[in-house]
Amino acid sequence: TLAGPLKYLPFAPDLAVEVVSPNDTASEVQDKVTEYLRAGTRLVWVIYLSSQSVVVHTPAGARTLAGTDILEGDDLLPGFKVAVSDLFAL
Question: Which residues 6+ apart lie within 8 Å of 71 measured at CB?
Answer without folding.
Answer: 45, 54, 56, 65, 81, 82, 83, 84, 87
